[in-house]
Design a protein that fits this description.
Layout (H helix, E strand, L loop, with lengths): L1 H27 L2 H18 L2 H9 L14 H8 L2 H9 L14 H7 L3 H9 L14 H8 L2 H9 L14 H7 L3 H9 L14 H8 L2 H9 L14 H4 L3 H11 L2
């Protein structure tokens, strides 16, 4: 009987002590643990487009520029995903506009690449650096030109974006627009004085890419603006050698005649 009483007493003590211990652990947890959780919640809310949660966390004094393990901040995530209201809220609270993630990309590069024109406008209006290069050397203008986002290209040019910046492989915005067949962007860049005969690391120019991909109207525009048909790849081939379309071959032959 004494043993049964002792066992019951121990169980009662445990029942009383356990909540106290749990509470002690909770209240002893460093404040930073809760702050870090709020920081990660901000990034999560920015990714999902949950503007209400973002506003609540910002009002609570969350670390607005806290990066996740991949270097993404809330502003970068919202800009990449196209969540304009969240971008505006973060900018209004002073988010670091030019912070670079691990690959060197900024919010402006992400928004330009993904075609989020209103966000590009908002970032530019707040003074985003236009010519930052990511780790492969890509700028916002190069990415927008490659993807065919003409309105964004115009907005970047209006802010003074450097036209002839070369990525690590030697490609420029003009080369990318020509390669992917974005004629309106080619014309816009030409109007701003883009260098026509810049060569990539293997010697290719805008004319090479347009000829190879069969973009006849772009080839015609390049030739009309004096593109050099005699330049060669490192293996010695010219644009005529790599062109597959008969009409383009004829244009190149005609342009090459003295």
């Amino acid at each position: 009987m004494l043993q049964a009483f002792a066992g019951k007493f121990c169980r009662c003590v445990q029942a009383l002590v356990l909540p106290v211990v749990v509470l002690a652990v909770i209240f002893a947890a460093p404040a930073g643990a809760f702050a870090a959780d709020a920081d990660s919640q901000l990034i999560k809310a920015a990714r999902s487009g949950d503007a209400a949660t973002v506003e609540r966390l910002l009002a609570g004094g969350v670390d607005i520029d806290h990066p996740d393990a991949n270097g993404f901040t809330a502003l970068f995530i919202a800009s990449m995903q196209g969540h304009g209201a969240i971008v505006e809220a973060l900018l209004a609270k002073g988010a670091d506009i030019d912070v670079q993630r691990k690959n060197g990309a900024t919010a402006l590069i992400a928004a330009s690449q993904n075609g989020h024109g209103a966000i590009v406008d908002a970032l530019l209006a707040k003074g985003a650096a236009v010519d930052v290069q990511a780790y492969k050397g890509d700028t916002a203008l190069i990415m927008a030109s490659q993807k065919g986002h003409g309105a964004i290209v115009e907005a970047l040019l209006a802010k003074g974006a450097a036209i002839d910046v070369e990525a690590n492989n030697g490609a420029t915005a003009f080369i990318m627009a020509s390669a992917y067949g974005h004629g309106a962007i080619v014309e816009a860049l030409l109007a701003k004085g883009a260098a026509i005969d810049v060569q990539t690391n293997n010697g290719a120019t805008a004319l090479f890419f347009a000829s190879l991909q069969g973009h006849g109207e772009i080839v015609e525009a390049l030739l009309a603006n004096g593109a050099n048909t005699e330049l060669r790849l490192k293996d010695g081939r010219t644009a005529l050698d790599i062109a597959k379309n008969a009409a383009i071959k004829d244009m190149l032959r005609a342009a090459a005649k003295p």
